[in-house]
Records
---
Amino acid sequence: MTYKCLVVDDEELARELIVDHLSKLEEFELVAACASAIEARTILKQQRIDLMFLDIEMPVLKGTDFFKHLLQPPRVIFTTAYRDYAVEGFELNAVDYLLKPITFDRFFKAIDKFLNQQLPSPPATSNVPSTTAKATYIFIRKDRKQVKLFLHEIVYIESLKDYIQIHETNQKHVVKYSLVSFISLLDHRFLRVHRSYVINVDKVTAYTKHDVELGPIEVPIGENYKQTVQEYFQA
């Protein structure tokens, strides 16, 4: 599923930063980036919006006041340079409250909260993987069975639009799940190196500025992830 997003902030640099963060997540589509609540109101009348990033301190009409007046508001993540609005933001049932400047790591956590809220509590036969307390394995539904998958056996994970393909050494599994949501089930040994790829760092045999080698397999490193990958392996 693709989630349609609206960014509302009177500061151009702040808008551009959120737009850049969103561009790294293939499950999210930017509909518009607006400089005011008035512009945002027009977009909301014209299109379905699933998630809105809304600045609180804006001229003419504050973000929180604008949100209160919406009859059918989308889910919202408030952004601001001031901590004082945190309580008000959560009273409006916001997904999260982000303080500027917004790092990608903090942004990613807010996105993960949003995605988790979209998932119903799965029944025993659900397609949604489940984890144990120690997160050493997960269950995925395959051929009408719940198949146990040990995390240490995963080599890498590839996004296929609304599905992901989990690559093990000797087999593959295709699951209807978003890559961002699936990442939340994994532990510290997994690293996102591309908008479409997550790797098990324990399986890495070599790497360059452009790709990571997992034995005979080469996984590309996305332009937006190169610095993160280099810093990870050089730490």
---
Amino acid sequence: MSSFRLNSDLILSYVTIRDKINEIIKSLQNHSEKYFKDSKSYYYSVRESSPKSQVEKVSRLLFLNKTCFNGLYRVNSKGKFNVPLGRYTNPNIVNKENLFAVNQVLRSENISIKCRDFSSIINDVKKGNFIYFDPPYQPVSKTANFTSYTNRDFSYQDLKRLAKLSEKLNSIGCMVMLSNSNSEKVQELFPSSRWDVEEIEANRAINSDSKKRTGHSELLIKNY
């Protein structure tokens, strides 16, 4: 099984949790101790920091994920993480059980992790392979336009490239599944005449208004 991502920070996290789990836990414990002494000051000092070592880079990312607003990952045009401090009383910064479980999964010989554009998968697949795409969702309104998990947006042109790639994978004989928002653009690129399109209800953990976290419609699209 291969995982293709363009977010280099995320790829580095996978690799480091796989190869340096004890160092990661030790670094997170240090973050945890300092955070609980002065959460606000320490959070923003870490957010503005730029560690050099592999372990400290990943530890910083995991710490911010556990203490930022709703666990949101977002960067600005310069690639800098810019999410504010979350409202937590006792965040689980050092979740050893989960980290060791992820470590065991990632150490499997059947898993490879690669930082590439999604289109490169065409060079690695063969008939019968299962491919799942989970790109940033297309906006369903003018205000719901978050597509920036890196300093490069996932644009409508990227979605069109993904649609063409999915058609090619289908012609090869691969099993293809992808999820995205229930928007007109997604429906146009993945019409129900050629794809099995299922509308599903989903909740949103990331919304400043808790009343707006439920009742969202998504599309699950597949060719089998």
---
Amino acid sequence: MKVGFEVKDHVATITLNRPEKQNAMDSEMYEAISSHLSQIDSNDDIWVGVITGAGEKAFTAGADLVGMHGTAEKAEVGWSSPRPTRFDLGLEVQKPLIAAVNGYCLAGGLELALVCDIRIASETAQFGCPEVKWNLLHGYGAQLLPRIVGASNAMYMLLTGQFIDAAEALRIGLVNEVVPRDRLMPRVYELAAVICGNGPMAIRMTKELALRSRDLSIPDGIRLYQALNRLVELSDDLEEGTRAFAEKRKPEFKNR
């Protein structure tokens, strides 16, 4: 199976499993990853998603150029669906996503990491947007990258196609932490457990507020906050959270 999927303790893990090809993604894998992301978004028993790559060499080296571009006929020009169904075309996931980046994280692989909210890298990780070397565009990633690392750092990566190592990725804010290779997955699951210990509805609404309000004025952002907060106030988990606070115990959230 090229893309693995498992759920344990409210955490879903998507594993790109094509290590002999540095986890390069063909059309089938793009569809499978996107389908699993949609499942994470819709399944109430899943509170956090983790994405990683099998093997030691790569998170994913990006799209399989032969499988995705080299043999394909030219597509007709036209409008796509207004509701994206692929992660590289704007598919939205309300649940928190964590990328566990081991080895190469390039091109479409970087786009996959960029759609995650938190990125943890091993010391051997390398990041890059080499599409321009092959006369291709780093499409969705070119829109996300400047928001995360700033315009100057993004342009350096996008226009040169050169790779950066884990230390540089940490310096420019592309990743949140750099850890030894054998600590990568344990650290990612530690963070997932911390997030799962928080109120799941509050987590989802917080992500929604943070992302939606980027392009809003402060007054409009406050209105969005009030609407989202009303949903949280009506939840059973709010009652449990306030009761647990008063009783000085850990809350037992049910995601309802």
